[in-house]
Structure formats: C-alpha cells, structure tokens
Design goal:
Elements lengths: L3 E4 L6 H12 L1 E5 H10 L3 H11 L6 H12 L7 E5 L5 H12 L7 E6 L2 H15 L2 H4 L1 H15 L1 H8 L3 E5 L4 H13 L3
Helix pairs in contact: 1-10, 2-3, 4-5, 6-8
Bound molecules: BIS(adenosine)-5'-tetraphosphate (B4P).
The site of BIS(adenosine)-5'-tetraphosphate has 29 residues, from helix 1, helix 2, helix 6 and helix 10.
Length: about 190
Amino acid sequence: MVNFLIFGPPGSGKGTQSVKLAEKFNLLHLSTGDMLRAEIAAGTELGKKMSTIMSKGELVPDSVVIEMIANKIDGSKGIAGFLFDGFPRTVAQTVALEEMLNTRGMKIDCMLALDVEHDELVKRLIGRAEVSGRADDMDPAVIENRIDVYNEKTAPIMNYCEERGVYQPVNGMGSIDDIFGRLVEVMNKIV
Ligand code: B4P
C-alpha cells in the first residue's frame, strides 16, 4: 500500500485533483470535507453540530475526523493505497494518522502540497459558491477566516512532513490538467 496526503489551503484544488488521481492510481479517496457534508445532508445529529462550525470556516474537533477516518481505513480491499484529502488538518490529526497507519503496517509515503497564491484561492472559492451553494464559500469574510485557520493550524504540518522526508511541494497554479500532470510526475516516482 502506498499512502498519499493531498495538502493545501482551501481552494488549492485538493478535491478537484483527488478525484482524478484516485482513479489513475487505484487509490481510495478519503475526504473528511465530503464525509462531513454527507453527515449534514443526511441531517444526522453529528451533521447538525458540525454544520455551524463549518459555516464559520472553523475546523471541527480532531476527535470527530479521526474517528471518521479510522472507520474507513479498515474494511477497504483491492486498493493500491489511500489518498487522504483535507485530512490531516492539524498536527494532532497527523500524529493520529501516523499511529493508525503504523499499527496496520503502513505509513504516510508522500505529502503532495499544492502551492497557490492567495488571490487565486479566493477567486476559485467565490466561483465555486455560485454552483455549490456552500455556506463556507459564499461569504468573503468566511473564506479569509478559512485561509487564516489554514495558516495557523494546518500549515505547520508541512514542517512535520519535511522532517520525515515525505514533503513534496507542487505548483498549484495553472490549469487543472497542468497541475494534474505535475502531481502524476511526482507520484510516479513513488508508486
Ligand atoms: P474541504 O472539503 O476539505 O474544503 P476545501 O479545502 O474548501 O476544498 P478543496 O481545497 O478540496 O477545494 P478545491 O480546491 O478542489 O473542507 C471544508 C470544511 O470542512 C473545512 O473548512 C472544515 O470546517 C471542515 N473539515 C474538513 N476536513 C477537516 C479536518 N480534517 N479537520 C477539521 N475540520 C475539517 O476546489 C475549489 C474550487 O476551485 C472548485 O470550484 C474547483 O473547481 C476550482 N478549481 C480547482 N482547481 C482549479 C484550477 N486549477 N483552476 C481553476 N479553478 C480550479
């Protein structure tokens, strides 16, 4: 099993690229954002609680997403590995993920870190708001808060991964196909 993290600020293209990469490399795409939105859409108790946090652009509690991911890791068969999208988002989540993988004889093999300019992030998210109707994309103040939360709580994971020798920065500016090509080039050296 080869396990990848796709990493980057909100709007960097994690979700967009993950769908294409998971298909190309036969990876199981695990997006905590998608899982949380599914809880909200299904109207579960958890979804109701998380919806308020997400609509403000804050992170949901570590324990919630760690449990979601742990439930998905076991019981997945016939895949070449996992592609974690939007998880981990804090150093505590990273430590928990490493532990989950290590106890199952696996590790984080590579962090693909998308690098995108601030104004481009905002432009993409505002563009998505028109089609997605997502509360966290509609308000420019919430978008800025998401970027601030990323810089404060999520970006430190890059140092953590660099220390472990698995950090791979990838230019996330340009067309979806160009960025996909860059990611594939990096991943081909690892699989
Ligand atoms: P996510 O679902 O992870 O949302 P995201 O960061 O906004 O999405 P992503 O980065 O994947 O979007 P993409 O660029 O692909 O999280 C949402 C919320 O859930 C968080 O704020 C948090 O509250 C909560 N959450 C999730 N995981 C959590 C965790 N682990 N811990 C705590 N809380 C958690 O797409 C953006 C737009 O850009 C799209 O419209 C796309 O079409 C467009 N786009 C992409 N690439 C482009 C390109 N190259 N050119 C032009 N447009 C492009």
